[in-house]
Amino acid sequence: MTVPWRLVGVVVLVLAGFGSAWQFQDWRYGRQFAEQARLHGETLNQLATAGAEAQKVEQDKRLALEQRLAASEQTHYRKLSDAQRDQDRLRDRLATADLRLSVLIDAGSASGCDMPKATGAGGVDHAAVRARLDPAHAQRIIAISDEGDRGLIALQACQAYVRALSSADPAHP
C-alpha cells in the first residue's frame, strides 16, 4: 500500500494549524487571566486601604472621646475637691466658734423668747428674730449639705459622661 504523501502533508498542515490555534487561544486566555488577577489585586489593595483609613478614623474618634472624658473627669474631680475643701473649712469654722449658724424665726411665734431683735452691723436681716443653732446640729446640717453637694457633682459628672458618649455615637444624634 502506498502512502499518499500529499494527504499526509495536508493532515500535518491541518494538525499544525489546530495546534497553533490552540496555542493562540491559550495565550489569549492567559493574558485575560493575568489582567483579571491584576485587577483583583488592585481591588484588594483599595479595600485594604479603605479599611485601614476607616480604622484610623475610628481610632481618632475614640482617642478624642477618651481625651474629652479625661478632661471632664478632671473637671468634676476638681469640683468635688473644691466642695470638700469648702465643707471642711466650714466645719472647722463651726468647731472653733468662728462661725455660728442661725435660723430666722417668725417674729410672732418668738414673742415669748428673749432673743435679740436686731442683728449686728454685719448682719443681713434687719430687725429679724434669729436663733443660734447648737454646734452639733450645725455640724449635721453641714454634713447633709456636703453629701448633697457631692451627689450633685456626681450627677453632673454622669450627665457629662452620657452626653460625651451620645455625641460620639452617630446612631444617637
Q: What keywords describe this structure?
A:
173 residues, mainly alpha, 2 strands, rod-shaped
Explain this structure to me?
The protein has 173 residues and is mostly helical. It is built from two helices and two strands; from the N terminus they run H-E-E-H. Strands 1-2 form a two-stranded antiparallel sheet. Helix 1 runs antiparallel to helix 2. The longest helix is centred in the first third of the chain and has 91 residues. The protein is rod-shaped. The N and C termini lie far apart (96 Å).
Mean pLDDT: 79
* Uncertain stretches: none
How do the helices and strands follow one another from N- to C-terminus?
Answer: HEEH
Q: How would you describe the shape?
A: rod-shaped
Range of strand content: under 5%
Radius of gyration: 45 Å
- The tally of helices reads 2
How would you concisely characterize the structure shown here?
The protein has 2 helices and 2 strands. The chain is mostly helical.
Question: Topology of this structure?
Answer:
Elements: H1 5-95, E1 102-105, E2 129-132, H2 135-168
Antiparallel strand pairs: 1-2
Helix pairs in contact: 1-2
